[in-house]
Amino acid sequence: MANQKSSVFASRKRTIRTKPATTHKVTTPEGDGDGPILSRSIGRPWLNHASSINSALAESARREDDATAPDDVCTILTYLSYSPKFRLLVEDLRKSLSLPSGDEEDWCTTLFAARVYQAGLIAGRRESAEVSR
Amino acid sequence: MSDRQTPENPDENPFIVSFFEWRDNTVDENLRTVYRGDSSQRVTLVGIARDLEDSPTYWRLMAKLTDALDEARKQSPHAEGKVLLAFAARLYAAGSGAISEVETM
């Protein structure tokens, strides 16, 4: 039970939803300590890649289930496990989940997921740039 | 990839990092870009988060994460860390695989 109390998601409730329930602001800690506001109400000035993201996740899941498909997730997992920045992202998530706004746990986790996804996008761009040279 | 340093046993403790074990790692470089992102990158981050929330596949991943964390909590904090690592690796792989689609939009 002691382990449960010290775990990252110890207070996490089973609140899996299919759509966000609220649109109010959420404060998430950042690495520089500024604690900027990251809010859903910020809008979507960036391109809406929802369908792209869903298909990319579906393809990734398909590769996970298909033993014959090449899957670099294990390699990525290894590098993440040795990444100081990933450790900091996890600590940020831990701080976010400890904030009083307990009903926004899914949003905090989704911001964490978005950061990792965005890092993957950067990796993909770099690989594409190298290939096109 | 072959010349990069890989841990001999990453399962021992996923979050322990030794300076001497740490060498070339583009995954960390890419995470650094996200971690120290400027305001425009933060806007992009929220856009991605909202798109993730619109993705049924993402919510299936979240459901799997929650179930796996429930199981891991019965074991150890390290087990929980590994679950989170697997979740993150899946997101990172999806992001790197999505680039061709995004670039053509």
Describe it:
The complex is a heterodimer of chains A (133) and B (105). By secondary structure, chain A is mostly helical. Chain A is built from five helices and two strands; from the N terminus they run H-E-E-H-H-H-H. Chain A has helices at residues 2-6, 50-65, 73-81, 84-98, 105-132, and strands spanning 25-27, 37-39. Chain A has a two-stranded antiparallel ribbon. Chain A is globular and about 45 Å long. The N and C termini of chain A lie far apart (55 Å). The model of chain A is unreliable at 1-6, 11-37 and 39-48 (pLDDT under 50). By secondary structure, chain B is mostly helical. Helices cover 67% and strands 0% of the residues of chain B. Chain B has four helices and no strands. Chain B has helices at residues 26-35, 39-53, 56-73, 77-103. In chain B, helix 3 (56-73) runs antiparallel to helix 4. Chains A and B meet through helix 1, helix 2, helix 3, helix 4 and helix 5 of A and helix 1, helix 2, helix 3 and helix 4 of B.
Key phrases:
heterodimer, A: 133 residues, two-stranded antiparallel ribbon, globular, disordered N terminus, B: 105 residues, mainly alpha, 0% strand, disordered C terminus
